[in-house]
## 1
Amino acid sequence: MFNGYYNESIIACLIFTLIIFLTMYSNPLNMIHDYPPAIQNRAKELGLITDEQKGYSKTDIIRKIIAIIVFGLILAFIVYKFNGADTFEKGFLYSYLLWNVVNWWDAIFIDCIWFCHSKKVIIPGTEGMKEYKDYWFQIKGSLKGMLFGIPTCLIVGTLVLLF
C-alpha cells in the first residue's frame, strides 16, 4: 500500500512549498491570516489590513472548502490508482499520513526555519517584533492542521470506497 509514499511525500512538499513561497514573496499580506495575532494587530494599526483580512472571510472559507474537496479528489485518485488503496481504511490512513508529512514540513521548514528567519516575510512597520520567532505559535498551527486533515482524509477514504 505504501509504494511510492516517499516520492509522493517529496512531491507534495515541493508543490506546497512552491505555492507558499510564490504567495508570500509576491506580498506577505496575502497570508496575513496565518501570521501571529500581534503582527496582524500591528498591520491593522498601520492601516495595511482591515479586521476582515485578519481572520478568514467567507470567501476564504469557501475557497478552503473547495480546496479540501479538490485535494480530496486528487488524493483519492492517487492512493487508489498508484498505491492500491481499495478500502476506506487504506484510503483514509494513507492520505492522513501524507497530509501530516506536508503539515509537519510546513511547521518545521516553512514556518520555523523559513518564516521565523526570513526578512522577505516581514511586513513593513512590523520589523523587530518578537512574534516573528514564535515557534510555539507555528507548532500549535500544525497541531490544528492535524485536526483539519481529518475531514479531508475522510473524504478520501469515502471516495476510495466508491471507486
## 2
Amino acid sequence: MTADLVVGVDVSTTAAKAVVWAADGTPLSSARVPFELSQPRPGWGEQNAEDWWTALSGAVRRAAQTVDSARIAALTVTHQRESFVCLDDDGQPLRPAMLWLDGRAVEEVDRFGTSDVHRITGKPPNPTPGWYKLLWLSRHEPETLARVGRVVDLHGFAVQRLTGLWKTSTASADPLGLVDLATARYDDGLLSACGLSTANMADLVEPGTIVGPLLDDVADALGLARGTLVVSGAGDGQAAQLGTGITGAGAAFLNLGSGIVSGTVSEEYSYARQYRTLFAATPGRYSLETFMGGGTFNLTWFVDRFSAVDPRALGLDVSAESILETAASQLPPGAEGLMVLPYWTGALTPYWDHDARGAILGLTGIHGKSHVYRALLEGIALEQRFLTEGLESVLPEPIDRLIVLGGGARSSVWCQIISDVLQRPVEVVREPESTCLGAGMLAAAAAGLHADLAEASVEMSGISRRHEPVPASASSYDALYGVYRQIYPALAPVFADLAATGATKASAA
C-alpha cells in the first residue's frame, strides 16, 4: 500500500496535538493530550519532560487509530520554543524542564546580555532564551549542570525518544540562544559560560531532514508501521509561518494567540532590536519575528476578571467574548476616546522593557465594558502596526500580505480592525492548526509526497477569507496611531520609577 499520509505533532505549553495530514493539506484525524504547567514560584515556569513524551505518544497513537496507519510515511514534531530539559547520561531528566515563559533569569540578562550575544544569536537580551536560564542554573544549581549528560530542546528530547538518536534541528535549537546564526553551529563561548560543551548537546541538522526510522518498539507502541520516518521539525513559530504558506519575502504571518507573534522570511542573516532572528523552517533562510506578550491573554483577563458577562445566565450558547465583540463592533474606531497600551506582560520588541506595564487611557463616565473590549482589540492592533513598521524599516521590500492564524483569527471584527489599522489586506488561514500543518509539510516533502518544501507549502495551505481596509476607518486609525506612538515614551520613566518601589515585583511574575 502507498504511504501517502504524514503526521504533524505540536507539543505546546499546554498539550500535545497530533494531526494526520493528506498530501493536499486535508486533516484526516487528530488527537490532543493535555499536560500540566508548574509554577512553583512567582515568575517560574516548569514542566515534567516525561509528560511531554507521554502526551506526544498518546496523541500520535490516538490520531493513528482512525486511519490506516500503514499509509503514514513520516512524522515531524514542532514544539514550544526556548524550553529545554537537563538530562543525565542515560537520557533521564535531572530536574523539571525550564520553559520559555520562565522569567527568573532577569539578573543574568542584565549581567550577560551584551551586544555581542545579540549579534551571535539574533536574540536581543531578554529572559526568554534558554541560555540565560542555564546561567541561572550554573549559579543556583551547579550540582545539576555538573551531572548533565545532555541539554536538549523539546524537539531533541522527542527525537531521541522516537529514534534513539541525539539530533535536533537548527530551527528548534537556536531559540535556546546557544547557536551562532551566521555559522549554524553551537557557539563554544556561550556553552562554556554555563559549563557546557558541544558534547552535551544534540547534533544539529536542517529542518526537513530525515533523522531516521522510528525505533521498532516505539513504532509498535504508537500504532505506526515499523520504518516510519522521523523528519526534523522546527519551533512552533517557524512551523506556523510555513503552515500559512510563507516561504519567502513580501508576506508576514500574524499569530493571534496568548501572545502575538508576527514574522517574515529573509534570505540574509541580520539582527536588530526591532525583531528577533531565528532559523526559518525553510532550510537556508531566516525568520525575523516581532513578539508581543499580551494578545488573547489580555482579552481573557478582562473577560474573566472584569466583564461579569455570563452567557449561560442569558440562555445563550455563545462565549462571553462573542457578546462583548458584538457590542464593541457597534462602536466607532477609537472606542470614543479610550486607548490601551497592551503591555500586560511587559514590552518585548523593540523596547525589551520588563518594567513596562499595561495602561488604559482616556476613561470617562460614558465608557463601559464594550468600550474597554474594543480598546483592547485596537490597542493590540496599533502595537502590531508599530512592530510591523519597525520590521519593515530594515527590510529590502515592504510586507504587502498579512496572513492571520491562531485563536484570535476566528474574530472577524478583530481581523477587520487589524486590516484598517495596518492599512493592508488581512488573509485568514483555511486551516486553524497551521502549526501542526507546517510540521506536516516538512514531513510530506521529506517523504516524497511533494517534490520539495516549496511545493508542499503551496499545495497544503490555503486562505478562508480576506479583509480589506475600509478607507474611512483607516483614516481614523491613522490619527489615533499618532497618539498611540506617544504613550510608551511618555510612561517609560513612570514604569521605571514604579518598578523601583518594588510594588510591581509580584505582578511581573
